[in-house]
Amino acid sequence: MRSLIDINELSREEIEGLIDTAEDIIDNPAKYSDKCRGKKIATLFFEPSTRTRLSFEAAMYELGGNVLGFSEAASSSASKGESIADTVKVVSCYADIIAMRHPKEGAPLVASFNASVPIINAGDGGHNHPTQTLADLCTIRREKGKISGLTVGFCGDLKFGRTVHSLISALSRYENVKIVLISPDELKLPSYVKKDVLKAKGIEYVQTTDLSSVIGELDILYMTRVQRERFFSEEEYLRLKDSYILTEDKLTGAKKDLCILHPLPRVNEISVKIDDDPRACYFKQALYGKYMRMALIMKLLGVE
Ligand code: CP
After folding, report:
1. What domains are there in the chain, each with its CATH number?
2. 54 CA: nearest ligand 1 atom
3. Contact present, 269 and 250 (Cβ < 8 Å)
4. pLDDT in tens, 163-182
5. Test site for ligand 1: of 53, 121, 136, 264, most ligand atoms within 8 A of the Cβ
6. pLDDT of residue 71
7. What pTM was computed for the model?
């Protein structure tokens, strides 16, 4: 039995295989409509979500399976003090696979030690979000035809942004990827990611606070939200929240085939006027997330 807690648990070949499957689902949805007939996914969300929870649920429905779960800790027995270990031991009796989001880093890993069904990490605190990374990689490959050799800029909250940490880790396994880190000093990429991933893998990277000075070099611009829920001080959040707002003006110096990604939700960091620009790929990215989750559910359930 296999879970997915960290994107590094999937080899590059497995990731490419999942993208191939997602593309086949897009082209031939009827072929997959019964693949998980009789199976159930439990979505255990201890933290708010729109895309991840609903796309897991849509994914299971589109595979012919069923869904159960909760969308907030307050409506589960966690609110009475039940542990993660006990929760997943019990839910393993009701479902074939579990997708879990939790504000505490490591909670899905603890769940995987105690469950008797596969656990998928649907985001744990500021740590990891591997299925978002699968959505990101699928979008990059579909838009650019490749992942190797691209210059990828990450902009905004690189400190708490779990989607950033997971995607940098995945990209570090591709050849000639260059990383451009754009953030205020207070929200820089954690040094453990720089040391353990970028430096350890010899990935070329630069850090800057100025988006305009680097936007022209980028093939991919990965915008992120400054996450109010990760700050200890409201004052600090208010000071930093509008550090970067991508506007039509800022795109003047960008490549004509730039691909703009954002894991969403967006608050203020991309002007809605950019949504109709062909370079805006973030809603496609959310759609591809559903197909990648379908591919992943089948893989972890051992469905051919
Ligand atoms: N990208 C993402 O994780 O969105 P949700 O928080 O809405 O699930």
Report:
1. 7-128+289-301 (3.40.50.1370), 130-285 (3.40.50.1370)
2. 8
3. no
4. 999 999 999 999 999 999 99
5. 264
6. 97
7. 0.95
